[in-house]
Amino acid sequence: MRAPHGLLERARAVSLRLPGQHPRAYRDYQGRMLTDAVTTAIAAAESFTDDFLTGLLPLLRHGAALGLWRLTVAATSTGPEKAWLVEAEAVRADLYLSNAPLTPDQEYALRVAEILERDEAWHAADRFRQATGLARDYLTGHDARHWEQVLYDQAEAFNEDYQDLLQADDSEERRWRRRHGITSYDFTGRGGTAVWRAQRRANLEYFEEWLVKRTKGDPAAGVMESPGWLLRTPPTWLAHAPAQAAGQPPEPFSAWAANGRLLAFPYLGRQAFWPLLPTPGLGWQPVPGFEPVAAAAATLRPDQILGFIEALLIDWNHTFAEEPSLRIALDLPADKARRFDFITAKEQHRIMAEARAITLENMDRFIDRVTDTGASEIYLQRLKEARGNAREFHRLTLQYNKHKRPTFGVGRATWRWPGRTVAAELVTGAPPDLLQWLAATAHRHSTLLLEQAMQEAWQCAFDQYGFRM
């Protein structure tokens, strides 16, 4: 396609993007925003025939389409989602009747619900089928224009329908399914992870507020809900979000960021910079020696920087009164621990021997279990021949029937890092190569822990709200 410079980017910008929709590729909606824009432009210029569109208003304004999506989400929300959305509606009702200021818990409930509705959503064929049914209800017949306006305005008439769909009681249907042993797919896990993602976004907003608005005498530690780690910052390290002129942050902050002396992250439509030291008579100054840490973030997108900063502040050896459900520890590969002189060569060999013993034990356990489930003699012989070769053994395990396949894991030769935070290592003068490696490792491991926390939210959602046979 030939187009004037900038036209295609503007076309993508006006395409409809559903909450939770990824920029590319998903089987249930147009994955490429430009294709959506071009198709809509063609339909606006000259209507075309499509069996799916027969009887429907062919074109919707974005506001009406998003209103239809909100009704779809309400109609298909799972137990975890409904709990937050209904709680938020109760807060709004109380707010309407009273002039009392919101409590922190009420503010949090409203913010999570807002993010859940407008930024996070799970997508599945069932949800899009529901959208099709609602479109047939609202956007066909002689009242279609009226209802398109209702969807666009999202005012009182819309809110009544929204609440009816959201608070519909499906308990009788669920009991009927249990009685008849029907095991159609339950989306409760997806709902639980959508709530987790909304809470995570809200918590990151609080975290960036804490970073930017902290002063030198404010508390330097706080717990981040789920996964539940403690964040601890050097008391003198602060963030600053200067006013921007003509859309550009003032110097020298942007130059410091460009030169790798500090980090910049998005904050309320502008940029914030961290870590900085307030210096009497000189204003702000970068933290000396921060360059190796900043280098570990060189390939990250701007929206990933806040998570990177969080990883630098995680206290990996904090003792909790009640231990979090996930193990919050930074395990270093034994060879790296040896390279940085954390352990001796003898300790490295011991750790590697223990890991190998665990792997062999796991291999024997796998062989015993597949023997019990009827594995062929040829397959068992191949497993025994591969015993001791972790890569080949793992490849063979994947060839076994996945419905009968036992779990198999390779023992890792790791050593638990005894330090507290990566930021504290910089303050105490750790070597630059260690700082850069620790920063990258802490960020990578914190990302893994967040994924595990979201998986845990999936399981907890089923335990509390899901359909179990």
Keywords:
two-stranded antiparallel ribbon, single chain, 4-stranded antiparallel β-sheet, 469 residues, 8 strands, alpha+beta
Account of the protein in words:
By secondary structure, this protein is of the alpha+beta class. It has a domain at 7-189. The protein contains 19 helices and eight strands. The protein has helices spanning 7-13, 33-45, 62-76, 79-97, 104-118, 125-138, 144-153, 156-166, 171-180, 188-213, 253-258, 291-295, 305-313, 334-339, 345-372, 377-386, 390-397, 422-427, 432-465, and strands at residues 221-223, 230-232, 238-240, 263-267, 270-279, 283-286, 331-333, 414-416. The strands form three sheets. Strands 3, 4, 5 and 6 form a four-stranded antiparallel beta sheet that branches. It has a two-stranded antiparallel ribbon with strand order 1-2. The model has no long low-confidence stretch (mean pLDDT 88).
